[in-house]
């Protein structure tokens, strides 16, 4: 494995060097706000980052596995198409913005607008698992994919205000208690039994394998599945206005 000290390079130099490196596994220490790391990568490299990663980590990526021992700032997995990002800490706002595929695992909390504009197409089904809580507007305008919020590592409310606002596809899974007043009014709410949990069991098992919890602990609280009541919940807003 190749090891790089991020403190030895400015942001642009670091990105240029990473683009040219052929090694399949790279570790970067002393990361401190460097932006656009692994942005647009189309490969199966494994990248290990130690520190606080700057905006747009793994944006538009297609294939790499990125592990962060620390925190991520805004836009982690922005419009990610494939691959995996694992954050052993927390992330800022708009994590998973427009995700089209791949998986994002976060041990602690996520900021505002988690997974907004997420979408799925055929075999492309993006997944976000948050171990802690999520800020306001989680799943806003969500068109597809899966968001799971566990509330395992947080003393905050599970979700912020306006969760699922404008949502018209996909599903959000909430573990344990949540403030129902924070949900958008058009959402269908289902408390899951064993059959329902089977839909997300593999994702929970991956979370456990990365962060060291147990399935017994995670499944000890009830899960609620949020989805939309009908396929086109907002069609009536446009009827008569679109020719």
Automatic annotation (TrEMBL):
It comes from the Bacteria. Residues 27-191 form the Glutamate synthase alpha subunit C-terminal domain. One of its GO terms (molecular function) is oxidoreductase activity. Coiled coil: none annotated. InterPro entries: Glu_synth_asu_C (IPR002489), Glu_synth_asu_C_sf (IPR036485), Glu_synth_lsu_3 (IPR012061). Pfam families: GXGXG. PANTHER family: TUNGSTEN FORMYLMETHANOFURAN DEHYDROGENASE, SUBUNIT C (FWDC), TUNGSTEN-CONTAINING FORMYLMETHANOFURAN DEHYDROGENASE 2 SUBUNIT C. This is Glutamate synthase, alpha subunit, C-terminal. The lineage of its organism: Bacteria, Bacillati, Bacillota, Clostridia, Eubacteriales.
